[in-house]
Amino acid sequence: MDFARDLLLVLHIVGLASIIGGFLVQTRSSRKRVEPAMLHGALTALVTGVLLVGVAEMGDVDLNHVKIGVKLVVALVIAVLAWRGRKASSVSTGVWGAIGGLALLNVVLAVFW
């Protein structure tokens, strides 16, 4: 079970890195868009996060369900924004900033909460 948890954690981090990397690559670009890496990273982080909670629930881990709920809502918002902007040639700076900012928020919540 430890191997499964560790593998899911690595994939979860790769998903978050994909979102943040796609966001940071465009900081100097005047035209913002949802890169495929951002969408795939959002979906990967969302699925692996849910699976990580499932694996933790199977063990003797005491989970903070409020934290998990907040992080799930943030991940869902990121996924929806990325999904809606996936085919557009460009998205507003607000949508682009929300995707990157919420991804960073989820990292901060994971580390400091």
Describe this structure in words.
The protein is mainly alpha-helical and 113 residues long. Helices cover 77% and strands 0% of the residues. It contains 4 helices and no strands. Helix 1 (2-25) runs antiparallel to helix 4, helix 2 packs antiparallel against helix 3 (65-84) and helix 3 runs antiparallel to helix 4 (93-112). The longest helix has 24 residues, at 2-25. The radius of gyration is 15 Å and the shape is elongated. The two termini are 25 Å apart.
Report helical residue fraction. over 70%
Helix-strand makeup class: mainly alpha
**N-to-C order of helices and strands:** HHHH
Which overall shape is indicated by the principal axes computed on the Cα atoms? elongated
Which short descriptors sum up this protein?
4 helices, 113 residues, elongated
Provide a compact summary of the structure.
The chain has 113 residues and is mainly alpha-helical.
What's the topology here?
Blueprint: H1 2-25, H2 36-58, H3 65-84, H4 93-112
Helix pairs in contact: 1-2, 1-4, 2-3, 3-4
